[in-house]
Amino acid sequence: MTMPEDLVRCLVLNTIAASRALLRAGDAKLKPFGVTVQQLSLLAAIRFHPGQPVMALAQLIALDRTSLTRNLDLLESKGLVRRVANTANNARVCELTEEGNLLLDRLLVLWRQSQAPLMEDITPEDAETYLRVSKRLAGG
Predict the structure, then answer these.
(1) The HTH marR-type domain covers which part of the protein (predicted)?
(2) Which residues pair with 53 in a beta bridge?
């Protein structure tokens, strides 16, 4: 029995399938470094949005509160992140440790290299359309 056409063409189901495939591949590349794609995203958000409250970082990278807390705890236990009080507005903020900054530098190089194989089967126009549509559907 085959799937009904409306399920085959469902944006949600196809997005979930694509997301899982991309996450599996990304996590496999990052495994030797002891981090996941979500943690890479969090490290980058901390570096490139300094002084942002923790919950603002969660919104930037679309992490729910539970996932954010779990990932921050893991990154902090690895010595990559530290949480500090922001005295200006009494909010908690995070900063990368020296080790976190060094690791992120290495990960960003690896991440840029890992994008090339993803582009082998699609055109730059397809990639641009995918990103534009994905961002629109994500509310951004």
Answers:
(1) 4-139
(2) 93
pLDDT class for 105, splitting at 50, 70, 90? Answer: very high
Burial degree of 91 (CB within 10 A; 0-12, 13-18, 19+): middle
- The CA distance from 131 to 99, in Å, is 32
Report how far residue 51's alpha carbon sits from residue 64's, in angstroms, rounded to the nearest whole number. 19
Q: Which residues contact 76 (CB under 8 A, 6 or more apart)?
A: 82, 83
pLDDT category of residue 87 using cuts at 50, 70 and 90:
low
pTM for this structure?
0.87
Residues 6 or more apart from 57 whose CB is under 8 A from it?
Answer: 42, 45, 46, 49, 63, 68, 94
